[in-house]
Amino acid sequence: PTDLAEHVIARDQTCRFPHCNRTARHCEIDHRIAWSDGGHTNESNLHALCARHHHLKHETAWQVQRLPNGDTSWTSPSGHRYTKPAATYPVDRTNAAPSEGRSEPDIGSVDPPPF
Question: Rounded to whole angstroms, how far apart are CA atoms 16 and 72?
Fold first, then answer.
């Protein structure tokens, strides 16, 4: 579904292969565990892969798993492991209380808008 694909794109931000920075918007949505192997179409089993790394996953012996913290771990055919950290987002302080770093304006010092 479109809303699930949009969620995966927003969550992953880039291809989940280590050191690949192709934006998730220009990637393919892949089932980590294939649907034919019992994998589900849900956010925990989907990730964004560019076409190159999507083919690499399906046509070679590379293995991928999503770690509990959201990182993606890839194991090469020779057994070496590579990890791509989960995407991070800036802290949203738009609704923060003044004690959480947002200061309230001094109403007396704010000029009223002209009408």
Answer: 7
Q: Three-state SS across the chain?
A: CHHHHHHHHHHHCECCCCCCCCEHHHCEEEECCCHHHCCCCCCCCEEEECHHHHHHHHHCCCEEEECCCCCEEEECCCCCEEEECCCCCCCCCCCCCHHHCCCCCCHHHCCCCCC
Strand, coil or helix: what is 77? coil
The pTM score is 0.76
Query: What tens digit of pLDDT does each residue of 40-51 get?
Result: 999 999 999 999
Half-sphere exposure of residue 70, counting CA atoms within 13 Å on the CB side? 9
DSSP reduced 3-state for 49: strand
